[in-house]
Amino acid sequence: MPLRLVHIAFAGLLAAPAFAQQAADTVTTEGTSTGDFPGLSGPAAASMEAKMAGEPVMAEDWMVAAANPLAVQAGAEVLRNGGTAADAMVAVQAVLGLVEPQSSGLGGGAFLVWYDAESGELTTIDGRETAPLDATPEYFLNDVGEPLDFWEAVVGGRSVGTPGTPRLLESVHEMWGNQEWAGLFGDAIELAEGGFTVSPRLATLVAEEPEDRLPRFEPTAAYFYPDGEPIQAGETLTNQAYADTLRAIAESGSDAFYTGPIAEDIIATVQDAGGLLSMTDLAIYDVVERPAVCADYRETDVCGMGPPSSGALTVGQILGMLDSFELASMGPDSPQAWTLIGDASRLAFADRGRYMADSDFVPMPTEGLVAPDYLSLRAEQLNPDQALTEVQPGEPVWDHAQLWGDDRSIEFPSTSHISIVDSEGNALSMTTTIENGFGSRLFVRGFLLNNELTDFSFATHEEGYPIANRVEPGKRPRSSMSPTIVMQDGAPLLVVGSPGGSRIIGYVAQAIINYVDWDMNPQQAVAAPHLVNRFGTYDLEDGTTATELEGPLQEAGFETNVRDLTSGLHAIAFENGSLVGGADPRREGIALGE
I want to staple 359 with a disulfide (CB 3.0 to 4.6 A). Which of 135, 364, 431, 468 is the partner? Predict the structure, then answer.
């Protein structure tokens, strides 16, 4: 198949709602420009410039969008050489673990949604971390039975779950890849050994870390604080240990990670820092293929990852409750539209807090939560002119009775998202994470270990009822990651996802509304100002026109909070035989295609 040059869609070609148009001027980035990536040139540089100008990237054959240009270029090279989206994902993730180590990597986990062009079917792969077999529901309680302080639990070995990313990479490649496994790590190994330029985002986050977190452990401090000073933007950083780890995985598969010397070093690091992870936990880990969870919205099916992720269910609930309201006619500047979106989100989060957890361990009303009749009943509570004074979980249909207490888990934003479409028409949406920025702060063999276990509820019971998302041996903690493929007439329409802790759900739901209801192109949809409501307080993105809605939303009855909302949305749309991509200007990524 002949290669095609990347095409950039310029301003005069696409109409933009005012709410979206201003995003390019007012949504702040963390120092992102082509100058921050000295090796960036050609189509990749043009894609970065397009993003900063608020313009989408267009292509005819394939496209990849991810959080760092170096990772995107690695994936693009695989796709250019005929690789599938699965092959490209492996290359992208390998580089992300080097250049964006605070967000994802070998020491974390991921959820992946796959559309298979040949069969026309959707499936999902669960690469979520698991709790140690020695963990108990009281794992995050202190000596007097009270929940630990969040940061006391995060930093160190207690928070580390069995990593899932290496096994996911290998499993997905075995199912859908067509390129040689070992060759997919070449770019990451070369960058690790030869050095990469430290980005402004990585340098800023390292500099902002408190002294009792990232610098606390000697191997971590030696890498991120050479000579006692935090790494600086523009410096060249090498990571021979990471190159050696990747080379071992390239040569021997993911078993090189889960058994042998690498595994022994992981366990020693975790246990020396107070954790329970064991060699058995690593040896028995495997990913799980699960059916996609889909919800109706307008004339589309919004499909994503089911339990243990709450993403697809909660995004689906929000959109399902809004399906009977004409958001298109209200427009993105309408306080009434955002009153409906905010309260639909609150209702969905109430259900999420009570019912959603690892369905391999606790029964869940998964189908009942996104049943159209149930969502229509929940939507009857919505009023475009008045915020709900009280929000309670609903009563979805179960196949048997079950009572749960409401969850008390905390999620802090980090994570990364990858969207890919290959020349065969396969589509991949993957959200990948080590949970909090820099995870547990434990650094071993060139990568950081996750703090994923703090996604469990620290408390075990609420008002006498067990909490569904409490810790149990081998259980996977609930997540908000929402990798999504929106389907229409049996074919993919939009591939999208974001990092951002529990706000991921709001970011993804809003991006879909922006695209489906408000006719924004993918770049406008991911750049538009954010308004997110989870538990009652409406977060409005600072420095954007979202703040102009603060007064009307307060009059409707909402409490508001103006703050930074640093999503990392990456979207690819299928439009008239072409691919149209967008990358969030709040972070350093790009969309690139040919």
Answer: 364
